[in-house]
Amino acid sequence: MTVIIGALLFALYRQLIIEQQYQVTQYLESETQRYQQLALTVDRRSFAAQIRAADPQTALIAWRNSYDMVGALSFMPEGMPMLPQTRDFPILTGGPDKLHILTGGLVMTRYGPVLIATRTDNLATLIDKFISAAATAVMLTIVLTLALGYLFSKAILRRLVQYNRLSEQIERGHYDTRLPLSWRQDEFDMLALQFNNVLDILENNLMAVRGVTDNIAHDLRTPLSHIRIGIEELATKSPDEISEGCAILTEELDHCLATFDAMLSLTRIEEGQQTLDLQELSLAQLCTDLLEMADAVAESNEQTLSLSLLADHKVHGDKYLLFQALYNLVDNAMKYSGQGARIDIIQSGAQIKICDNGPGIPDDSKERVFERLVRLDPSRHLQGTGLGLSMVKAILSRHNAQITLSDNHPGLVVTIQF
Fold first, then answer.
1. Does the reported pTM lie above 0.70?
2. 293/249 same-domain check
3. Interatomic CA distance for residues 66 and 38, integer angstroms
4. 8 A C-beta contact, residue 402 and residue 396
5. CATH classification at residue 197
């Protein structure tokens, strides 16, 4: 603001100087033409009379005739140039302002050189007053700008200090801390809102990590305890019992290893590290292969497994991964719906539904079951890793497909939309 106002005042000052010079030049030129024409049209006596009659408040005209000085001066200043060249010179008067500054020069006429000058000290005084007023305005602008800038910066720094203090609380582990939002809805509020969203995601991820850790400890503690007890008991068993015990311990270890392998595979799929073997697939053929694979298991559980193909649809995907995802869903339906249940596979265009008439899943758990190592309490007694549905969702996401769970009254409906 100070630089802009200073530049404007300087431009105005330059304009005043130029205007002053222009007015003086125009006036002297007009007076020059006037007295040159006057000398050509009147005699010497009339010419002298016209010079004596000139108003000294408007212009100063002086002419030296053969006898004395005619006009407002008692003598001709030395070194005066010929117009349009000009020079400033002072004169003393008897009025209240004794010293006047004039600007003028000589003009040649038929009766000799005539001094033509005009007063310029009034304009100089006006310019001096303008400079003083401009300097005062600039100083006031600087003071006002600094004051407003200080208040504005203090308001900004106050919020930054508050954000810094809250960030230190978050750094110390208080992840429920959030940055405040004001009524202004300015850039700081936009930043705080975005930062709060990041904190929400971070807190949810931390809660998920803690949940995964708890689930790992819960699911692996039992088989590891069995392995430890089995190893201790091997020392007291016969060779045949040792062979049988080793087989059981190996099965328990395989279950633990399968859990960690599944977690690594899930991470590779979610992060896009596993390359997909893309090819054109028929969803109807995929469901047909699924029925052939799972039908024997359903018969052993005295369950009914049916397939309905309404309209085929082609997709580009990894056949092995998609079949694995679909089989996991059908296997879950057979495992948790109970003996004698009915499982229906319905394929219609780009949609596949897997329906059962088992106990279903509560509404508040339909999204939670897709998290890693989450197993609902009624299923804890069944062997599994708790990663099946997480793997299913990761595979379908890589194939741009969505999976939703809904009630079948009774039972569960799993809907896959490619």
1. no
2. no
3. 18
4. yes
5. 1.10.287.130
- CA separation for the pair 135, 36 (Å, rounded): 44
Number of domains in the chain: 3
224-276 pLDDT, tens digit each: 777 777 777 777 777 777 777 787 778 777 767 766 666 666 667 766 666 77
Residues contacting residue 166 through CB under 8 Å, at least 6 positions apart: 177, 178, 179
Q: 372 and 315 in contact (C-beta within 8 Å)?
A: no
| Cα–Cα dist 156/191, whole Å | 13
Q: How far is the C-alpha of 319 from the C-alpha of 278, rounded, in Å? A: 8
- Domain holding 49, by residue range, is 2-126
Closest listed residue to residue 228, CA positions, set 245, 244, 243, 240 = 245
For the chain, helix (H) and strand (E) counts, in that order, are 8, 12
Tokens 């008897």 sit on residue: 94
The answer as to whether 145 is a domain residue is: no
Is 216 found in the same domain as 303?
no
The verdict on 266 and 283 lying in the same domain is no
Render 33-96 in DSSP notation, one character per residue. Answer: HHHHHHHHHS-HHHHHHHHHTS-TTT-EEEEE-SSSEEES-SSPPTTPPBTTS-EEEEEE-SSS
